[in-house]
Structures are given as structure tokens and as C-alpha cells.
Amino acid sequence: MTVDLAALAADLKDEQAVLDGIVAGIDESDWLVPTASPRWTVRDQIGHLAYFDGTASLAITDPGAFNASLDGLLNSSGGLDEATLSRDLDTAGLLERWRANRRLLNAAAERLGESDRVPWYGPSMGAKSFLTARLMETWAHGQNVVDALGADRPATDRLAHIVRLGFITRGWTYANRGEAVPAAGVRVELTAPSGAVWRHGDDADAPNDENVVRGSALDFCLVTTQRRHVDDTDLEVTGDAARDWMLKAQAFAGPPTEGPARGSHANQGDPS
Length: 272
What we know:
- By secondary structure, the chain is α+β, with helices and mostly antiparallel strands.
- The chain has ten helices and six strands.
- The protein has two domains: 122 residues, no CATH class; 90 residues, Nonspecific Lipid-transfer Protein, Chain A.
- Strands 4-3-5-6 form a four-stranded mixed β-sheet. The protein has a two-stranded antiparallel ribbon with strand order 1-2.
């Protein structure tokens, strides 16, 4: 599937707006509800997005200033949480900071070209990968918020971006753990919220039926972003290689994490 950069930027903006609509009207006490991320409340999930949406806009518009900011973050005396979660603000101020940083990011995204690369906290990223990662972040942290509040967030075909990211990061999942990628390929066959079928890993001349993941795109995204254990979804996983991947899948950067235990929404990792 060809990804249009402008459409991707628009989908990121729409995903942010949906989450904004969920938290904009909640009570003050709801901001303090614990989420699946250890020690993080609802407001911390939004604080995380506010910070990294801001640094993402800086990475696009002023790579030198972004690189200079890395030392300050790593040397923060209060730790990463205090440096990145905006705990110094009241909820109104936090929401406005997130909205302001989103506006900066959305404007910066419009300047990106197809061949541009953006510095980040690991290797630099291509423009499409960078915006896809921001969309995944918004959706995944939004899932923590939705779970904590019992809110409703209907799935949309914007999940196509996260599905693609979840699929292409299979190799990363193993490399990040210092493990060899299993030789057997895995294909996915997923039903989109619209009813369309999304396939990745297909080979028309030699279809792989030994290792397959089938089911809803939503469930696949929940597993690859470590918001659900695969056994707590309706995914149909065939083959040892497919099963092993779904137990380890990690579509986000950072140290390897185990994800939620079976029967729990609690995730150990953080897609930063």
C-alpha cells in the first residue's frame, strides 16, 4: 500500500483530535486516574504526548536545536518523568501545552518532503516513518487513557498505519532483544474497521500458510503496541514463528519490554 505523506499528516492530526475530545471534558479527578503504565495517571499520558509532540516539531524544524536538547533531557536532575510529563502544570495548562505543541508539530509536518530524514532519540527516521511513529504514540497512549476511563473510541482505518508499523518492526523486535529473527516468514491477514482486508507478507506465487496471524486490525495493533496480550484478543495465530512474534512484538523504540501479562491490560513498556 502506498502511503501519501500529506494524508498521513492529516491522519495524525485527526487521531490527536479524537483523543483531545475524550479528555477535554473529563472531571479533574479523572485526570488523576491510574493507567496501565506504572506510576502514570491519565494526565501523565497526555503530558508525555505534549512533551514529545513538542520535541518532534523541533526535530523537524531545527535539528541542531533538537540534538542540543538531548543532553539536557538525559541530565535532568528530576529524572525523565519530571522532565517530560509537565507535572508542574495544572490540567488546563497541560491541555493547552499539548494543543500548542500539536499545532507546532502539525505545521512542521506540512513542511516535510518524501526524502527528508528527521533526527530522533535513536537513529534518524524517514519522514513517513517519523509521522507514523507519532500517530502510533498518540493512539497507544490514547488506549491507556481509554482503558483507564472506560471511554469509547471507535476504531478507524487510520489503524492501517499502525498495522504497517507493527508488521515491519518484526525484525526490530528480535534485534532489540539480541535474538536472531526466525527464518520462517509470517504473514498477516487483518480485517479493517471498514471491513476491508489488509494483508502484509503475502507472496502470490508461494503463499505462506504455515505462519499466519488473522483477525481484526484493532487486535493486531493492541498486541504490537503491547496494550494487550495476544491471548486476550481474538487473533488467530497459526505456527510457532507467528506465535513467538505475537508474544514478543514491540512496534516502538526503547529497551525490550514484556508487555502485559495474560488477563491484564497493564503494559510494562512505553512507546516513546
